[in-house]
Amino acid sequence: MSDQLACEKFGRKDLSYKFWRWQPHTCDLPRFNGTKLLERLRNKRMVYVGDSLNRGQWVSMVCMVSSVITNPKAMYMHNNGSNLITFKALEYNATIDYYWAPLLVESNSDDPTNHRFPDRIVRIQSIEKHARHWTNSDIIVFNSYLWWRMPHIKSLWGSFEKLDGIYKEVEMVRVYEMALQTLSQWLEVHVNPNITKLFFMSMSPTHERAEEWGGILNQNCYGEASLIDKEGYTGRGSDPKMMRVLENVLDGLKNRGLNMQMINITQLSEYRKEGHPSIYRKQWGTVKENEISNPSSNADCIHWCLPGVPDVWNELLYAYILDHHSS
């Protein structure tokens, strides 16, 4: 469990956020069965590739799966500080990995701990440094959204090591599309569709403006304990233009013979304004005086408490994995 997501451990008292499930209109999701999933993953490798939201989903999946493993010696976890974290269920020889690549392509934010810089720079055509770690997996679950959310991103044609590269400021939606095209071209060449199943999680919404759901101006998810009950609600933390770009790239990839299934988690997560850690998480630095007097200024309304919303995402993913296996 990540201390960034362990809300109850860090003092959250209202715990209803842990118990919601998602009920689609036109079907019933299969109940998650960790043993059945591990059987599907026997002698296989599943890897989550992306940012800290995808890492949260990986933590969720590891918790859900490990709950059916009764012998602690039958589980193995390896994290040496690199981009790759490995969980292994030894009896099944099943591996569930997480790989840090918040922008999917190479960037100056690729270090898993030291990645906060005033200028975000991407090598928009370079992905091999990351992709060689996960290309041969049986199931790959991608995400990439929040790290692109700025008007322009600096793109580099050249390498970080040499000084003769060309830098260009590119409009965000365009550079996002270019990165997804680089990913899709790599997958088209290097992935065997008969072996590897590909998934892409849609954008995870944020709840940083309470006025969007009828709350108080200049407040956010801090203090929220109930869901948004207006069906179809969307906040400004979600960008439909980026969703359309992703859909178009995946359609193009499918037309070229490789299917990557988008799992649309956006709308169901929009309702969950109470599902974020807010202030109930590990503080990585000293809490400032103004953050004590005004807790909402220090609230995390981006990530999700666990247990919680990412478990629902994994239940959807589980349904698709079962469906792929049976077909």
Give a structural overview.
A hairpin with a 4-residue loop joins strand 3 and strand 4. The chain is an alpha/beta fold and 327 residues long. Helix 2 crosses helix 8 and helix 4 packs parallel to helix 5. The mean pLDDT is 93. It is globular. It has one domain. The protein has a 7-stranded mixed sheet. 27% of the residues lie in helices and 17% in strands. The protein is built from 8 helices and 11 strands.
> What can be said about the biggest beta sheet?
7 strands, mixed
Summed up, the domain count is 1
Q: Name the average pLDDT.
A: 93
Radius of gyration over C-alpha positions, nearest whole angstrom = 20 Å
- Which strands sit side by side, in order, in the main sheet? 2-3-4-1-7-10-11
Count of discrete alpha- or pi-helical segments spanning 4 or more residues: 8
* Overall helicity: 25-40%
Q: What are the segments in which pLDDT stays under 50 over at least 5 consecutive residues?
A: none
> What's the total number of strands?
11
Report the principal-axis shape.
globular
Proportion of residues in extended strands:
15-25%
Structural class: alpha/beta
